Every structure is written in structure tokens, then in C-alpha cells.
Amino acid sequence: MIKALVVDDERIARAELRRLLQAHPTVEIVGEAKDAAEANTLLASLRTDVVFLDMDMPGESGMGLARRLPDQLRVVFCTAHSAFATEAFEINAVDYLLKPISPEGLARAVTRLGGSKVHQRTDCLPLDFAIILKFNDVGRVVRLREIERFESVGNYVGVHCRHGAALIVGTIARLEQRLDPGHFLRVNRAEIVRLDAIVNIGNGANGGLDATLESGKTIEISRRQAQLMRTRMAML
Predict the structure, then answer these.
(1) Strands (DSSP E) along 43-155, which ranges?
(2) Span 59-87, pLDDT tens digits
(3) Which of 28, 67, 100, 177 gives 20 to 30 Å between its CA and that of 235?
(4) Domain 140-234 maps to which CATH number in 2.40.180.10, 2.130.10.10, 3.90.1300.10, 2.40.50.1020?
């Protein structure tokens, strides 16, 4: 049983989420809070596995609370604001549900929490997961399936897609843990590539491989990862 705490300053929103969760008997709501302060009090006394968390609340914001939660406590954001999706991505939120919450969206989040009989990695972000990135000061919604590759840039990660390149806070190692290995591969110490963005592969230096991506960019696949790539791509 997944123990859940619902944190939202709107009573109607809390009631609606409770109603929707009735369709998921693997999730038990153990408490409700109207703000971060009340949530902190409940979290100190209740066994909780996940927090369904609103973003915009009086006092401390939902994001502020989420950043202080222990790593083992999972977070599903439930908000009317899409502008914080990138930050949610950076703190490893399980999901980011936009209000009004759809039954399908909630079902996806519950599945990823492990509340489904379907066995799969529950910590992987789905390909339709959307984040808002800035390109030349213009915000764009970008889904994972549109991202060609990720690149380590110091304390940031460069995100490369058809709109150009953008930066998010984080590390390539942490990001790798959130991506589905069936769709993304760490090709070397600094880069992760979406597998179906690869259009051509050839032999590279030192036993590695060279891969050409849809954009025309050529990347090096390390010798260590080359064998895994050959297996993935059914290469001889």
C-alpha cells in the first residue's frame, strides 16, 4: 500500500484528488494539509511514501517544500501552472500533473509510483514528459521524445533538440537515473543520446563507435559502451 499525503490550499482540489484516487486502491491517503507548514507537521508523525503537492500555496511554495523533503519521499506535483515543470524535472519529481487532473494522468503517476500490477521501472520519465526550456529567452514546451541528446556542462546539463540548446541545473549521472534505458543510452562520460535519434553508426577510435544523429552531429561512443550499443542496435 502506498501511503500518500495531499498538500493543497484549496479544499475543493483536495477533495477532487481524493475522489480520483478512489480508483486506485493501492494508494491510501493518510493525511491532508493546506500549506507547507501543516504538511511538515503531518510528515513528522505519519508514515508517508508520496506527497501529492500543489505548487502555489500561501507561505512556502510547493517547490520550496519539495526541495527540503528527504530523497526517499516521492513527489507528484498537482498544479495549474506549467511554468514550473523544468524545476520539477530537476528535483526528480515522479510526475507533474496539470489541473484539472485527468484520470489518465493520475493513473500514469500511480503506475510510476509502483501502484500498478504492470511491472516496469517506476522511476523512468515517460517519453511524453514535457519540460519548459528557454531558447534565446523564448520559453518552449519540449517533450523527451523531441530531445536528441543531453550533454554534461559543469553543474548543468545541456539539452539539445530541434529548437537549439538549453541548460538545466543538474548532473548527467542523476539525469541518467530518470531516463528509460530502452530509449536513452549514456554513450560516454559526458553525453546521453536518444537511441532513435541515431541515423548512422560506424567504427571509431580505440574500439569505440562513431554515431551520427538526426541533426548531423557526430558523437563518440566509448569502447565500454560500444558493446552495449551493438547489442541494442543488433549490430554484428
Answers:
(1) 50-53, 74-79, 95-98, 130-135, 138-143, 147-153
(2) 999 999 999 998 789 999 999 887 777 77
(3) 177
(4) 2.40.50.1020
Q: How far is CA 231 from the centre of its chain?
A: 26
- In tens, the pLDDT along 15-50 reads 999 999 999 999 999 999 999 999 999 999 999 999
At the topology level, CATH places domain 2-114 in Rossmann fold (3.40.50)
* Rounded-to-10 torsion of CA 77, 81, 87, 91: 0
Residues 48 and 4 sit within 8 Å (Cβ to Cβ): yes
Q: Which amino acid type is present at position 151? A: E
Q: Is the peptide bond before 181 cis (omega within 30 degrees of 0)?
A: no
Q: Find, among 208, 207, 214, the residue nearest to 193 by Cα.
A: 214
Q: What is the DSSP letter of 80?
A: S
Give me the amino acid identity at 28. Answer: E
CB atoms near residue 78 (< 10 Å): 28
Percent of the chain surpassing pLDDT 70: 93
**Please, is 22 exposed, middle or buried when counting C-beta atoms within 10 Å of its C-beta (0-12, 13-18, 19+)?**
exposed
Q: CATH 3.40.50.2300 residue ranges in the chain?
A: 2-114
